[in-house]
Amino acid sequence: MIKWTKFGLGGLGLAFLIGLLLLFSGVLESKSRQPGLSGNAEQIAKARGLTPANIEAALKTYVPTGKRDEYLMFASGGHSGQVLVIGVPSMRLLKVIAVFTPEPWQGFGQGSEESAILLSSGNMTVGKQRTLNWGDTHHPALSETNGEYDGQFLFINDKANARIAVIDLRDFETKQIVKTPNLISNHGGAFVTPNTEYIISGSQYATPLPFHEYAPIEQYKEKYRGLIVFHKFDRQKGKIVAEGSFQIEVPPYWQDLCDPGKKVSEGWIFCNSFNTEMATGGIGQGKPPFEAGASQRDMDYLHVINMRKAIQIVKQGKAKKVSGVDVIPLDVAVAEEILYFVPEAKSPHGVDVAPDGNYIVISGKLDTHVTIFTFDRIMKAIKNKNYEGKDPYGVPILKYNDVVEAQLNIGLGPLHTQFDNKGYAYTSVFIESTVAKWSLGPPYHEGEKAWQLIDKIPIHYNVGHIVCAEGDTVTPDGKYCVSLNKWSIDRFNEVGPLYPQNFQLLDITGNKMKLLYDMPIGIGEPHYVQMIKADKLSPWKVYPEVGFNPATMSKDPNAAMLGKERIVRNGNKVEVWMTALRSRFNPEHIKVMEGDNVVIYITNVERARDATHGFAISGYNINLSLEPGESSTVRFTADKPGVYPFYCTEFCSALHLEMAGYLFVEPKK
Ligand code: RUQ
Ligand code: CUA
Questions:
Q1: For residue 365, how many C-alpha atoms fall within 13 Å in the half-sphere facing its CB?
Q2: Residue 524: nearest ligand to its CA?
Q3: Residue 41: predicted pLDDT
């Protein structure tokens, strides 16, 4: 139990906070005194056993009804194949964006022709076509203009199948899924260049190039390769385009995360790797398992890539077409001097370019240090051709001592770093389960000692990535960081052996970090998150016009319109133009013959905000979500005779249950 009389100085703070609470409750009381309201915040705090720190945290995170959050986080949904949208500081879940996985509420992959086409567009390009119905989302990336989040698009990778998706932030919907040619899986994505010209990813697990060509593991060194992928993004179209996209072949080290340079380093790309040992596993054959084989050396290689020159080389026709894509072969990359290695602390995850573009922070998961290189030093070493040697593929290796600026002991297992607006960096420390705050070097803190560990805060437990407000842009905001923890034992009510993951909100406004809030995440595993100022987003409130097709982002010429509803038969094709409006579908009866091909063009003709209708046909596995103005298409064969109710799945009005109709499928004679 907390002794309230023993707080001393802390008690003064408490008195102040409680005073504040009393003030608020006083205002509330005078307006509407509700029966049962204690009117005594101190009593509530006492009864609930809240400490002054708890009360402060509550005051900093509570967002009253009707009020908005200051920031939005876009979190990967991990194996759910989705993206979560979360408000900060309230940590309220606002939306789950369907990306790689069917999602019934949004009607994604549940019968609409548009989403079926979208999902299948990410199918493997070779072999038996199989529509993938899950993905493993890892690293979301907001589009940037001049190194700042611009609130227009979000990109996310699917590690399991090497796909990248484009989400348009006007309607928070997935617009494109691209299967990356030549890759079967990819982890290190998505990362954008400062003006979103390219979306970049690294391959991780090396496979024969292209992946569908077989090569036994004994030929690992000769035949297996990694790739750094550059998807060209066309902002006008809002799509990744083939024209201008290219890839760079790299040795079969397991390339991991990348970070494109910014400001002074714009035009260069930095990617981590591990398993430079080229371990091939084989625990069953008495070989060391990957975990041991891939961590024998003390150093792995940071890949330093001259992207601008790579683009020139592709333009000069020096790339090779593999599966229809320009791939710069490894020997060309070496000969043209676009690829260099820098020894880095082993098994790193994060490579993070600081806001000024000069400092490059490496977090080696098996080390106790973060290592800071500078772009200046890297450029100088490259210019002087001052190499420590070459790797087995001829790639020049810069001298560690030539390029290192600082090494800072922050604890065991640094993983990923973000930045604030005051010249501090925040690194998640996986093995220790802490977040470390440390000071960057000049020019941030003139007159202050650089490269100092400032503060550490324990978290619960096993933090992976960390996110701070706009913390990987050229102008971070500070204020909040969130540690994205894998484990939550002893934090929440128990819900069986699969525990929630835990987002912990940290207040970083003071010298010392403060833990404000625990948010259990029931959809795993959220790997990485980006946090954007909410006022940078301007999503549509309703679709711009009635009959709007979100797949084309324009009015659908075939959209059903009010007063033009009809059913037209042509041979065994039956087309239905249907509208939805509170609280009826028109038409309400659809009569077809067994075996007919049925197409329903359906439009929600509402203009009222939030007046969404669903459209489900029992027994036919169909459920659409039609937001105000939206037009969608359903296509199916009426192969099951019988009478099938269809109904609206959204509780849209008092007469919502009456928003229904029948599909009659008359059996063949
Ligand atoms: S990751 S912490 Cu893919 Cu960067 Cu999981
Ligand atoms: Cu429309 Cu319920």
A1: 20
A2: 1
A3: 87
Structure tokens at 345: 């602390």
Q: Which CATH superfamily is domain 71-100+135-278+292-536 in?
A: YVTN repeat-like/Quinoprotein amine dehydrogenase (2.130.10.10)
Write the pLDDT tens digit of every residue in 44-68.
Answer: 999 999 999 999 999 999 999 999 9
Rg (CA), the chain: 28
Residue 297 phi, psi (nearest 5): -80, 155
Distance of CA 290 to the CA centre of its chain: 27
For 599-645, the pLDDT digits (tens) are 999 999 999 999 999 999 999 999 999 999 999 999 999 999 999 99
Please determine whether the domains at 71-100+135-278+292-536 and 548-666 fall in the same fold group of CATH: no
| Amino acid identity, position 71 | Y
Domain boundaries defined on the chain: 4-61, 71-100+135-278+292-536, 548-666
Which CATH code is given to the segment(s) 548-666?
2.60.40.420
Mean pLDDT of the chain: 92
Distance from residue 527's CA to the centre of ligand 1 (Å): 5
- What is the C-alpha to C-alpha distance for residues 516 and 500, in angstroms, rounded to an integer? 18
pLDDT on residue 192? 98
Hey, which residues does 95 pair with through a beta bridge? 85
- Is-above-0.85 flag for pTM? yes
- Alpha-helical segments (H) within 32-128: 41-48, 52-61, 113-120
Task: Name residues contacting ligand 1 (CB within 6 A).
Answer: 138-139, 187, 257, 349, 464-465, 527-528
Which ligand does the CA of 604 lie closest to? 2
Task: Give the tokens for residue 428.
Answer: 């998640």
